[in-house]
Every structure is written in structure tokens, then in C-alpha cells.
Amino acid sequence: MLVHQDEPYNAETPPDALAAQITSLDSFYGRNHAPIPHIDSASWRLRVEGLVDRPLELSMDDLRRRFPERTVVATLQCAGNRRADLIEVRDIPHQVPWGPGATSTARWSGVSLADVLDEAGVRPEAAHIAFTGADVSQQTDPPQPFGGSVPVAKATSSEVLLAWAMNGQQLPAVHGAPVRVVVPGWIGARSVKWLQRISAQAEPSDNHFQTEYSVLLPEAEPGTPGDGITLGPISIHCAILRPARNAHLACGPTKISGFAFAGEDRTVARVEVRADHGSPWTRADLDPPANPWTWQHWHATLTLPAGEVELIARAWDSTAAVQPESPATVWNLRGYANNAAAHLHVTCRP
């Protein structure tokens, strides 16, 4: 792991682990705003309240006994993934300089959030489902638990889980035990860990981190209400995993590989790669997706010239959206949602 901070713990997945279809538990990225809570699953309770006909208080045994277990393979990704590329354009103070490894894929098991909401009886006037975790952040004034919300339509989709297992094992404390939300296709901040409360409500969550995870335009003043675009579904993007950044290689035919991720229920339709601006694009071979909620790996072979070379990769999704070529075009004050084409520098010797 590439550890950016020990407390709160923030660490990204190394490139070799990103090349696997499923990320191992000890390589899965960690993004936190507070110390990791350690919660006794036997005494843990989940409250479901707000605009519901039947408020619930559920234990772990209740979840297992009253609802069918489901499994979804899904990629989670921090909204700040690849922020380091934006920092090269212009500094972004006080933010974690994530490379391409603030993303990972796991096999999640638990119960459908839709099933739990159905038992609670969500009222017609509820438009959003809000989540509150047990992790209390000192970054807010006053300190508050991490939280956020998603629209009812997303919350009641079959892929959204209350997960207690990860890759066939009990959910680790670092990833949200005893139960976390998993919202496939959306930024990781909406997959709230250490879940304690679910609330059906007419408006989005008023939690600090619901609006913190928004894109502020370059001319905006941070802290001004309504000055950002709240983040939800992930935009199409890709990363180059091999060769390594700043690698020294022999010139000639060279295998280039990486992953692409489309977010929401979109898939990756095409990936292209080239060596330096102006050279022709080469279409990469694209692995089929495990399902609509996961990344897709790609690989291509380019003939690299001697000298300094910049590798560039870009992807299209199934709606024909394509990545912008330069990180400068998507730079923003918090460094979120970088979906610019991937750039990687190498040196080739004759």
C-alpha cells in the first residue's frame, strides 16, 4: 500500500494489485476522514427512520434472518482518485495527492438496501436516502459523523447493498465493519462505512461530507453555499498500470496495460493508447466486464521510439462519452472527478 496518512488512515492500492480483477483485502484502498471505529457486532444496531411508515431497529441477526443474502461484485472509487495529475497542473493544498490507486474491486455480500427500505415502508414524499456512520470527523466544526445520501431511485436499485462481507470474509474494521453501504457506480463517499442510521427524507443529506464531495469551479469561493456540483455517478476514465511511471525501457514493441471504469450502469466501449501527442492512436484489447459495476482491464502493444516518451490512454463509455485529453481542462479547487486521459512518462533506450 502507498500510505498517504496514518491518522486518519488513507492509503492507495499499488499498481500490481490493480491489475487483478478482484482486489485482495490487504490491498484494497482506504479513504477516511476520522479514526477507524471498532464496533462490537453483537451490540450493534441499525436504525431506519425518517419518512417511513414503520421505523426499524435492526441487529446483525435481524439482517441475516429477515432478508435474503445477496452478492454484488463492484468497483469502489474515491472522488479524489488521480488528484496527483491535477496537482501537477496547479497546487491543491490540504488534499490527499492520490495517484490512480484510490480504487479497488471486491465481491460484496449482505442484504439489499431495497429490501430493508421496503420493510420500513418509504413514504412517497421521500426523495433521498441518507446514511450516517460511526466515524466522527474532527475536520468539521463542530465534529460530526461521516454521512451522505443518494436519491431514492438509486437506493432502491437491486445492486445497492448493506454489506457485512468482502471477498467471502467478514468485513474488516478498516472497511466499515460490522456493516457498510455499497453504492456501485457512484463515488466511494456515498458508500458510508460503519453504518448506524438510515433516514428517508425529502431533501439530500445536510451532512458536511454530502456537499464537501462536490466540484468547485476554479473561480468559486470555497464555503459559499450552492457553489459546487454535488458528485454522484463516476465519469468514464482510465489509468495506465504498466509500464510503471518514469520506467526505463528498451525501445521497440512494448506492452501497455491498464484499467478503465465507466461508473453507474455504463460499460467501457473502447480504449485507445498512443506514444506522444500527434502519433496515431492504437485501439487496445478490452477485457469483458465481470458485470456493469466493475472496471475493465485493457492492453495494447506500441512500438516505442528511443528517448523520452509520454504514453497517453483514453476511453469511451457505452453512452459515447470520451475522456478529455488534458488534466488542465478538469482542474478544480478540491481536485475531484479527474477523468482526463491518462498520461505516463517513460524513457526508452536503444
TrEMBL record:
Pfam families: Mo-co_dimer, Oxidored_molyb. The keyword Repeat does not apply. Residues 33-208 form the Oxidoreductase molybdopterin-binding domain. Its cofactor is Mo-molybdopterin. Residues 235-341 form the Moybdenum cofactor oxidoreductase dimerisation domain. Keywords: Heme, Iron, Metal-binding, Molybdenum, Oxidoreductase. It comes from the Bacteria. PANTHER family: SULFITE OXIDASE, MITOCHONDRIAL, SULFITE REDUCTASE. This is Sulfite oxidase.
